[in-house]
Amino acid sequence: MHPIELIYVATGIILCAAVLAFAVSSYFEKKTKAFMVALIFTAAISAVWLAYYHIFSFSMIMLSIPPAFVITFAFLFFAPDGRISAIEIDNSGERVDERDVMFAREEYEPGDSRYDAYYSAKPEYKEIDDAIRELPRFLEPGGKYYDPIRSPYIDSIFHSVRYLTTRVDGEISPERKAIEPAEITETLKHAIMKMGADDVGIAPLRQEYVYSHVGRGPQKWGSEIFNNHKYAIMFALEMDYEHVESAPDLTITEESASKYLQGALISVEIARHIRNLGYSARAHIAGSNYQIMLPPVAYDAGLGEPGRLGYLISPRFGPRIRLGAVTTDLSLTTDKPKNFGVQDFCEKCLKCAVNCPSGAIPYKEKVSVRGVKKWQLNIEKCISYWRILGTDCGLCMKVCPYSHPPTLFHNIVRKGIGRSAFARGISIQADDLFYGRKARF
Ligand code: SF4
Ligand code: SF4
Question: Rounded to whole angstroms, how far apart are CA atoms 331 and 325?
């Protein structure tokens, strides 16, 4: 056989095997449409490859064209083109008041002193917040997916998280141990992963990401927050792929609650361990006891990039993560932010916006928020929808192309979209073709 013929045959076999492997992997992911489309592609490529060989086997020039096309395609898909946009950050230094956060505002009830104090200072939020209060409460009767057994069970998981909010801080051992930063950083990262986290990073803590005043949790409402810790230990917990696929029903909320509880346990234990070494440390957990804004600090720690849907997008798990944090003055070695193409991908993809039933995710350009260019979620619309459902929805997380499980095939695609604009353009089209533009629920 002529070497060109050999290359032609080998390329055809590799191509068909790759598409068939994708069909098999889609079958195990229970993605019926992707499975069927990939099978059709396998059959079509085999037929075209054989027919072309039959017609042009007399000409080595003609036989060299299809392999050259495939090789060029692979090169364009994986070759770094240096066209990756970073997030534009020009921090104003302004801090966010936790009392303004939607989850805090939801808790103010008429007759409660916080309600009167807050809405006389911020009357612009009163009408929309009162309208939200008219809707069924989260996990309580009235929500579309309310279940008399499962909803209270999930609420009890959140109850355990709330209990841990009283365990975030404590006594610092008077015997301060001399510790080498690189060594303790590795030890803490190892411990966090051992306790069940799926990624971990360290960031210098910037004061603009520390809330200015307490809005929720056991500390006095409205008191000023002082957290001068120099470092934030950030970690991510992967949310189970199949549970996220169940969105918007209760299963995704159970998964969120479980990961919040696991994150709370990890951060409380790590903070306690650091205090036992003689250094100040505080856990920041849901429910709420955050003194810091987790997504931007997690970005600084290299755990992901913020996407259009408002969540941090992890390089391996996409938005299917929950975050945890410990801040400390123990010296640590820091990580760097990672930019892997999310800003460019989200610019064109828009799949979360198309699928968001409440219209909370913007189609428009980014806006500048305290000096950071970002897609601004309409949180009031999102939370209203959560209350209508009685779950935390998660449809945007489910449809995001970055949410595919970290299998060999999806990881290969992730490599490409983190390097080349060509790969990002093709992958957006391919995601719609194999998985559909609109989710069914
Ligand atoms: S669905 Fe698309 S636009 Fe939305 S966050 Fe994911 S990648 Fe970005
Ligand atoms: S959770 Fe649901 S309502 Fe909220 S932004 Fe995502 S898709 Fe929209």
Answer: 16
Same-domain status, 318 and 169: yes
Query: 164 in a domain, yes or no?
Result: yes
| pLDDT at residue 90 greater than cutoff 90 | no
**Count of helices and strands (H, E) across the chain:** 17, 8
pLDDT-based confidence at residue 440 (cuts at 50, 70, 90) = confident
* Residue 78 alpha carbon to ligand 2 centre in Å: 32
Structure tokens belonging to residue 382: 């999102």
147, 226: one domain: yes
Three-state SS at 213: strand
> What spacing in Å lies between the alpha carbon of 1 and ligand 2's midpoint?
58
pLDDT in tens, 115-163: 999 999 999 999 999 999 999 999 999 999 999 999 999 999 999 999 9
Angle at 103 between CA 91 and CA 299, to 5 degrees: 35
Please report which ligand is nearest the Cα atom of 424.
Answer: 1
Shared domain check, 421 and 326: no
Number of domains in the chain: 2
What is the three-class DSSP state of 222? Answer: coil
Does the pLDDT value for residue 288 go beyond 80? no
Residue 34: name the closest of 438, 319, 432 by CA: 432
User: How far, in Å, is the centroid of ligand 2 from the Cα of 396?
Assistant: 6
Exposed (0-12), middle (13-18) or buried (19+): which is 292, by Cβ within 10 Å? buried
Looking at the structure, do residues 78 and 201 belong to the same domain, yes or no? no
At 237-247, the pLDDT tens digits run 999 999 999 99
- 91 pLDDT higher than 90: no
